[in-house]
């Protein structure tokens, strides 16, 4: 569903459009339709909670009404998706006895970072789990302390959760350590996560946030709901109030149509202008803003990139960065069995194992991996990296499959060149690339075969 509602307000700035300049004709308040940035392929979205883990030392200082941490987390997840429309099934599987599958850690490792969770190979889910996605939660930290030494100025709270969500088949979706800080009676919260899209979440959530409760239990639940929302919000569509600056004269057909609520007519007008004059950066920019309102961020990013090649103005640059931030988060998560072409490729590669080799390498800082979408580029690189096998007359080497190790220590799914390895994050100029572009600055492994 896409929505572009009528203008909610207009602040008009009647200024001329000079040569080489971009002058807003007005600041419009409109509603932007944001489709899910992470989409599940093949089946409806559903979430199962496999495990909520909290150390005994943490439970020892927890108020009695919060001791059922597992039930509270399950309720928070259910409440979040119910408030978002109730279309997502949430199932509590915590009674099935699923256990953390992280490898045993030495005492020295625990002392260095007691919060870390290094995950090994996916162990599979218990029988009876039917949801498309499954989540494991570890409560890392919960503190409630006086905001001032005299104890009269309320209390400050901190909740830290390690949340890891996977497909039922074992494809990682998101693993992140989320910290939520708050103070009793205040609207403001502070969220932190290296992996989560905090800025995008705050854009959605901050306008609707209420003051934090005064009691410890209420504060815990409020922070818990924020952490859950931050972890899952990319899976759902949203409507976002946004201030929109158009560029052009007030009497231009496109500007007039937009202000009258005829957004489709305005878009048609600006696209026609851009086609007639590819250097009409104002038309490119305005068209991109309308496309973004409709949830077509990838098209909007391309037009903003074209506008910037004509005039790299601060207004264009700011909007390009905002749209790029959303596009960089777009992903399609596979669910269900492997596709027929993936199975065929795997079977073909396994027929001649003697001529195939698996290599694990550190970040190579070779920028050639980031160039374009051509799957043939690895032939020259493999000949350079592995001359004994690949730099021989009549021999052609190609990567059969590969993985990238993300910064949280978890390996990606197995990518197959040309099938499932298109990166959702584009280059700075809006062009696309393959996931092996991360070979530049990530540890990686690949299986290559000589034919």
UniProtKB/TrEMBL annotation:
Keywords of this protein's UniProt record, alphabetized?
Answer: Signal
Q: What InterPro entries does its record include?
A: TPR-like_helical_dom_sf
Region annotation Disordered: where it falls in the sequence: 334-354
Its signal peptide is 1-21
**Record Gene3D superfamilies:** Tetratricopeptide repeat domain
Q: What protein name applies here?
A: Tetratricopeptide repeat protein
């Amino acid at each position: 569903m896409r929505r572009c509602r009528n203008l909610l307000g207009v602040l008009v700035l009647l200024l001329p459009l000079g040569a080489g300049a971009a002058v807003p004709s007005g600041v419009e308040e409109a509603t932007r339709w944001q489709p899910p940035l992470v989409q599940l392929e093949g089946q409806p979205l559903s979430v199962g909670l496999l495990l909520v883990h909290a150390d005994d030392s943490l439970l020892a200082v927890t108020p009695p009404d919060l001791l059922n941490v597992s039930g509270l987390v399950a309720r928070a997840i259910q409440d979040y998706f119910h408030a978002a429309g109730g279309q997502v099934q949430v199932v509590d599987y915590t009674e099935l006895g699923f256990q953390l599958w992280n490898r045993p850690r030495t005492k020295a490792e625990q002392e260095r970072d007691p919060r870390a969770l290094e995950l090994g190979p996916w162990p599979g889910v218990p029988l009876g789990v039917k949801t498309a996605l499954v989540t494991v939660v570890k409560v890392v930290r919960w503190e409630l302390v006086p905001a001032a030494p005299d104890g009269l100025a309320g209390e400050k709270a901190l909740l830290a959760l390690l949340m890891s969500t996977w497909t039922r088949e074992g494809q990682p979706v998101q693993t992140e350590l989320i910290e939520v800080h708050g103070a009793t009676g205040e609207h403001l919260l502070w969220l932190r996560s290296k992996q989560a899209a905090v800025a995008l979440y705050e854009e959605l959530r901050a306008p609707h946030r209420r003051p934090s409760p005064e009691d410890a239990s209420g504060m815990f639940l409020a922070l818990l709901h924020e952490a859950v929302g931050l972890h899952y919000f990319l899976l759902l569509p949203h409507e976002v109030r946004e201030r929109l600056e158009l560029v052009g004269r007030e009497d231009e057909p496109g500007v007039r149509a937009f202000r009258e609520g005829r957004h489709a007519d305005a878009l048609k007008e600006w696209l026609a202008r851009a086609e007639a004059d590819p250097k009409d950066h104002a038309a490119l920019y305005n068209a991109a803003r309308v496309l973004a309102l409709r949830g077509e961020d990838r098209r909007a990013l391309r037009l903003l990139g074209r506008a910037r090649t004509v005039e790299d103005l601060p207004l264009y640059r700011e909007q390009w960065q905002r749209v790029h931030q959303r596009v960089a988060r777009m992903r399609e998560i596979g669910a269900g069995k492997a596709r027929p072409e993936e199975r065929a490729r795997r079977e073909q590669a396994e027929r001649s194992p003697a001529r195939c080799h698996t290599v694990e390498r550190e970040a190579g800082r070779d920028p050639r991996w980031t160039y374009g979408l051509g799957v043939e580029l690895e032939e020259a690189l493999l000949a350079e990296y592995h001359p004994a096998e690949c730099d021989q007359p009549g021999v052609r080497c190609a990567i059969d499959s590969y993985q990238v190790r993300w910064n949280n220590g978890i390996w990606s799914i197995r990518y197959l060149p040309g099938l499932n390895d298109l990166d959702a994050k584009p280059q700075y100029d809006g062009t696309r690339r393959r996931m092996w572009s991360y070979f530049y600055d990530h540890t990686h492994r690949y299986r290559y075969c000589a034919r």
